[in-house]
Amino acid sequence: SDTGDTTASPKIWQDMAGFNAAEDKYLADVKAAVAAAPADADALKAQVGAIGSDCGTCHQGYRIKKG
Description:
The longest helix has 21 residues, at 16-36. With 67 residues, the protein is an all-alpha fold. It is built from three helices and no strands. The model has no long low-confidence stretch (mean pLDDT 89).
């Protein structure tokens, strides 16, 4: 949201193409992780690492930190 009490940065609307690309990468990585059906904890860590990196892209670039 761009109104009210939000931590969404105005950069989302200034760089909507970049934001959408980051979202698309996140969704693709989640689908790949599900399709990979990791058999053990180490394989799961590899999948979660990619997804976590995707989360960081948005949280660092498109969110205003509180306090």
